[in-house]
Amino acid sequence: MTINELSPGQRATIIKINKGEAARNRLLSMGITPGSTVTILARHPFRGPVTIDLGNSRMAIGREIARAIEVKLE
After folding, report:
1. Fewer C-beta neighbours within 10 Å, C or N terminus of the chain?
2. 62-72 pLDDT, tens digit each
3. H-run or E-run covering 24
4. Ranges of the chain with pLDDT below 50
């Protein structure tokens, strides 16, 4: 399951990032790391971003990146 498949309000733990090294490093620098817990805040329509809550931070990530982040539901 990936972040892109979750609905608003669902919480999940990040398991793995399946993206190229540059994108992976960028996500890691943003705090999106394996073992982190995320809550989906919104899925914007028409290929818009997915807004997530990660600890004390809120951020929007593109759908392509969201499809590359494997998660496990809590």
Report:
1. C
2. 999 999 999 99
3. helix 21-29
4. none
Give the mean pLDDT of the chain: 94
The amino acid occupying position 10 is Q
Rounded CA-CA distance 58/66 in Å is 14
HSE (CB half, 13 Å, CA atoms) of 55? 8
pLDDT at 45: 87
pLDDT of residue 47: 84
- Which domains occur in the chain, in start order? 3-73 (2.30.30.90)
CA distance 26 to 22: 6
- Cβ 17 vs Cβ 69: under 8 Å: yes
Q: Other C-beta atoms within 10 Å of 33: how many?
A: 13
d(CA 30, CA 24) in angstroms, rounded, equals: 10
